[in-house]
């Protein structure tokens, strides 16, 4: 079986160093062969992004271009319907086959809300789920909704190497370096005419300034 492939979806509005560090550390902690970035077109769990899908795609492509372990999936950004994770995984299963180990990368907060996702329980029949958390603050089953807590206990791997033995169905966790960066913070800085340098790659900042994006009307 090929090395597991990480799947990293999001609005990336804009992509920043926190996103990049999560993807980079996931490769090392989980033994991934790479990470496929999947910018969402119409995210179902938040408002409409401030910039177009094509612009967010271009920023992700620029941010990830220097890492051979990263690839970018452009299929979702112009989709007419909301970008539901389960639909994305079904598409990738057709593309990559039923035997490839796929690992959906999510943060601890997103994982805690998993039961609100569309057809959330079907995700485990399509992929593994890997949850990042702050160092020293592991995922506590008692802090999760009851339905999710039981699934977490039943599917959790003690060792991430187990991701390589099946195409999906298990849960892994990993601690990642904490970077106090958020896309919301960056958008606020830019809208107020303040510098966002060193919060996101220069290629992304250059793209934002060239177009220009995230400025008050």
Computed CA radius of gyration, to the nearest angstrom: 17 Å
CATH class: Alpha Beta
Q: Count helical runs.
A: 7
**CATH superfamily, called what?**
HUPs
Question: What does this protein structure show overall?
Answer:
The chain has a single domain (5-180), classed as HUPs (Rossmann fold, 3-Layer(aba) Sandwich), CATH 3.40.50.620. It has 217 residues and is of the alpha/beta class. The chain has a six-stranded parallel sheet with strand order 3-2-1-4-5-6. Helix 2 (53-64) packs antiparallel against helix 7. The model has no long low-confidence stretch (mean pLDDT 95). The chain contains seven helices and six strands, in the order E-H-E-H-E-H-E-H-E-H-E-H-H.
Helix/strand layout:
Elements: E1 5-10, H1 17-30, E2 34-39, H2 53-64, E3 70-72, H3 85-96, E4 102-107, H4 108-112, E5 128-133, H5 146-155, E6 171-175, H6 183-191, H7 202-210
Parallel strand pairs: 1-2, 1-4, 2-3, 4-5, 5-6
Characteristic key phrases:
6-stranded parallel β-sheet, 217 residues, 7 helices, single chain, alpha/beta, 6 strands, Rossmann fold
Produce a short descriptive summary.
It is built from seven helices and six strands, in the order βαβαβαβαβαβαα. The protein has 217 residues and is α/β, with parallel strands linked by helices.
